[in-house]
Specification:
There is one protein chain. By secondary structure, the chain is α/β, with parallel strands linked by helices. The protein has eleven helices and ten strands. The longest helix has about 35 residues. The termini are far apart. It is globular and about 70 Å long. It folds into three domains: about 100 residues, GTPase HflX, N-terminal domain (Rossmann fold); about 60 residues; about 180 residues, P-loop containing nucleotide triphosphate hydrolases (Rossmann fold). About 5% of the residues have low confidence.
Length: about 375
Amino acid sequence: MRAVLVGVWGKEVSKEFCKESIKELKALVKAVNGKTLGYIIQKRHNPDQRYYIGEGKAKEIKEIVRGTKADTVIFDDFLTPAQVSNLEKFLQVRVLDRTDLVLEIFSRRARTKEAKLQVELAKLMHELPRLHGKGKQLSRLGGGLGTRGPGEQEREVRKRLIKKRIHKIKQELEEIKRRRREQRKRRERPENGEKILRVAIVGYTNAGKSTLMNALTKKGIFTANMPFATLDTRTSVRMVYPDYKLLFTDTVGFIRKLPPELIESFKATLEEVEEADIILHVVDVSDEGWLDYVNTVKEILKELNADDKPVVYALNKADKLVENEEEINYLPHPAFIEGDAILVSAEKRWNLDKLLQKILEKGEKLKVEV
C-alpha cells in the first residue's frame, strides 16, 4: 500500500487536532505494512456530499496521486458509500476511510475464534450499506449465492446473504458471552474467606495495558510497540495478602474516532468493563497528546455505560521521562488528572506497589463482600 492521507478541519475540529489525527493515521498505515507518501488537509465547515472534500481539492489530490504513483487514498474520517464510489471513479485508485483501515488492522490481529467473529461482524456491518453499486465479491462469506428469484437483483441477494451471516455471528457471540458469564462466576467464587475485586484494564491503544497486566500478574501476554497488538480479552489473578483476590482483565485498546461498528461488535468483550468493580485506566504519559487520549477513553467508557465506576489512573511509561524511579515524584502529570493517579513504569516495574495499594484502597471503599 502506497498511500496519500486526507484530513479535514473546521468549526468543530482544530487544525492542530487534525494534524495529530493524521499523525495517528500514519501509524495505522504502518501497522498494515503500508507506506505514507504524504498528506493533505483542508479547512471545510461542512463535508461535500459528492467528494467529502471540495472538487478543487479532489483535483489536487488526483495530481498528487499521479505524481507519487500512490495506489490508495485514505481519509481520516468516515465516508458515505456514495462518497467512496465517487472518489474512486474520480481518482482512479482505491479509496479507504478511517474505519476501513482500523478494520483491516483488527482482521490481521484477530487470533481467537471470538475475536475473528467480532471483526467479521464489524466488517459486515460496515460493508452492508456500501453494497450499492460496488459489486463487491462476498466469496469469503462461504457458500454460494443461492437461487435467485425472477428479476431479483444480485445486490439484493448479497444483502440478504450478509444479513443472514450477521444474524448467525450475533448468535455465536451471545453463546460465547453466556459461557464467559459462567467462567466469571467460577472465577469469582471466594475461597478461604477472601475478597474478590474485579479490575478492568482500559486505555488508549499502545498505552502499555498488556505490559502492565504482565507486570501485575506475570501472565505472559504478547506485547508489541504497535496499535492494537492484542484484541483478545484475558483475565488473570493476583493474590494480595492477607485476603484479597484481584481479577485483572485486559481489554482491547481504544482509539480516536473508534468505528461504531467495532464498539457494537466488541460489546461481548467489553462487557467485562461493565462488570468490573474498578477501572484501571492506563495512560502513556510519554506521548505529548496524553490528556487528549484520556478524554477519548472517557468518552468511550460513557458509551459503554461504565463512566460511573471508580477509576485509578496508571500514568505509564514514566521511564521515558526520567532516568530512575526516585525522580518520578517530581513529575507534574498527576496534577492534571481529577482522581487517583499513580506514575508507573510497567516495563521497569516502577511504583507498582503504590498502584496496587491504591487499587486496594478503592476496594476497601467499595466494601467488597465475601
